[in-house]
Amino acid sequence: MKICVLVKEVPDAAVEKRIDPSTGRMDRSGEKNLNPYDTHAIEAAMQIREGGAVPVEEIVAVTMGPESAVRALHKAVSLGADRSVHLTDAALAGSDVAATGYALAQTLRREQPDLVLLGQQSDDGECYTIGAVVAEHLGMPSLTQVIKMDIESDAAPSLRCERQAEYGYDTVKVSLPAVISVGDAINEPRYPSLKAIMGAKKKPLDTVAIGDVEIDASKVGGEHSAAQWITVKAPPQKAAGMIIEDEDTAETVEKIVAWLDERKLL
Ligand SMILES: Cc1cc2nc3c(=O)[nH]c(=O)nc-3n(C[C@H](O)[C@H](O)[C@H](O)COP(=O)(O)OP(=O)(O)OC[C@H]3O[C@@H](n4cnc5c(N)ncnc54)[C@H](O)[C@@H]3O)c2cc1C
């Protein structure tokens, strides 16, 4: 079995996310990291391999992003991927979700995976949609919010998945190849060993441009994206809170009760 894992480079959690008003795109100037949700997808791939129900010949990390995104691929490899593919091309800049999903699907098409795994959401765009778009282009079934996954190897391998739904849990059997986005409750990602971190840069990395994976240039990039950024408004400032210094507890309690009562919270 060949598993491809989609991974994305995102601004580090400590960096305040903001849109650059001059371009209408995310300001990506700060510290960046591998999208934390994608570490669960890599771990899920590793657990399928280590589970041994089916032989996993290859785990391939795939990303679309600028030059710097190579660091997210190195991290993915240090967490267990065998090699990585980096789709990078100036023509892709500004792509919306539909264009990004199409471009990733074209990149995956060349790899012919039996299973595509991805995170539930990116920590910056938070669209939760790439899995569905990729699956549609590849003509594969797709599941989201999967929190348990077992390989069933009858005549042809399939997956028995548990997915988190609003009303409880769905159990779904899905035939392969398939695109599965995993919820962060699926596992506890491992930490990379120092040896794996040091060795990650030596693992094969295939850098491809749009022509290499037959991406139609008229379907990608900001100019050709159906969603166009118009404007952004900062969330309204929160009113300052009220601090009650406790000198006399009875009086403090009275003040808190009065405060709650005034707002009809009692
Ligand atoms: C008008 C417009 C312009 C934009 N311009 C840019 C831009 O210039 N640069 C930019 O980076 N984004 C840009 N975006 C955002 C970009 O479209 C989204 O980041 C992208 O479509 C993926 O959506 P998401 O990150 O919300 O993914 P989600 O659907 O929330 O992510 C789910 C999972 O999909 C996978 N995934 C998502 N994106 C990638 C990727 N690139 N490579 C590999 N795996 C991935 C990850 O596994 C992730 O966990 C733009 C969006 C709009 C609407």
Radius of gyration: 22 Å
Q: How far from one another are the termini?
A: 59 Å
Annotation field: number of helices: 6
Major β-sheet annotation: 9 strands, mixed
Query: Which structural class do the helices and strands define?
Result: alpha/beta
CATH topology: Rossmann fold
CATH class: Alpha Beta
Which percent range fits the helix content?
25-40%
Mean pLDDT: 94
CATH superfamily: HUPs
Number of structural domains: 1
Q: How are the strands ordered across the major sheet? A: 11-10-9-12-8-1-6-7-13
Short description:
The protein is α/β, with parallel strands linked by helices and 266 residues long. It has one domain: Rossmann fold.
How is this structure best described in words?
With 266 residues, the chain is an alpha/beta fold. It has six helices and 13 strands. The chain has helices spanning 36-51, 70-78, 97-111, 130-138, 194-199, 249-262, and strands spanning 2-6, 9-11, 19-20, 25-26, 32-34, 58-64, 83-87, 115-119, 142-153, 157-165, 168-175, 178-182, 205-208. It has a nine-stranded mixed sheet, with helices on both faces. It has a two-stranded antiparallel sheet with strand order 2-5. A two-stranded antiparallel ribbon has the order 3-4. The mean pLDDT is 94. It binds flavin-adenine dinucleotide. Flavin-adenine dinucleotide binds next to helix 1, strand 6, helix 3 and strand 8.
